[in-house]
């Protein structure tokens, strides 16, 4: 991974990433390792090969904790294990998500609840789990991955969009509640990041062309494109930023 910037204060920090062994999450884990942070991550699928590669590249392996994030008790236990190994979590990155396509007509109550259990609920309960440790540290940073999809009014996954909109609301509510403890909470809103999953399932030449036409910057986003912004939000370089929703999408949606 190309390292564009160094945030010296991230060295040695305890970082926790959900979904940190593949796609955008793997790039986030690597980005923090490159800064010298101590990284733990959860993922449901096996990430052993990724861990080995990171250890070979950086001389320090991330702590991989297999976990289904819909199991809140198991997720909180993983956070406790990470804190026991690396110290209280000072930067929490809620990255994991599932953007499976679905329609209004076909969505059952069970499917809706499962989507929220993956795409929204963990953001709240991981924050609940790390808040006390961050207080003892004198502060911390929580970074919640949302999406520009709901800002664009996309079709094809209404439950996912509802969850992503909810993340922005949760982010602002938690920023208000945790601010007196110097805990910052921000949302990061990526555009269409071309992970292997996206390229395999949905990135047709026609859709790629149409989306690129909406961007001001005429380059497709890769997972690495959101890493530096995440590092910035985790670092003291953004120490007076909280309750914000930062868009990294090449200039599709515009805020302000």
From TrEMBL:
Pfam families the record matches: adh_short_C2
GO MF, any single term: oxidoreductase activity, acting on the CH-OH group of donors, NAD or NADP as acceptor
Keywords: Oxidoreductase
Ketoreductase domain residues: 13-195
Position of the signal peptide: none
Top-rank taxon, per record: Bacteria
SUPFAM superfamilies found in the cross-reference section: NAD(P)-binding Rossmann-fold domains
InterPro entries: KR_dom (IPR057326), NAD(P)-bd_dom_sf (IPR036291), SDR_fam (IPR002347)
Family of the protein in this entry: Belongs to the short-chain dehydrogenases/reductases (SDR) family.
Name of the protein described by the UniProt record: NAD(P)-dependent dehydrogenase, short-chain alcohol dehydrogenase family
Organism: Thalassovita taeanensis
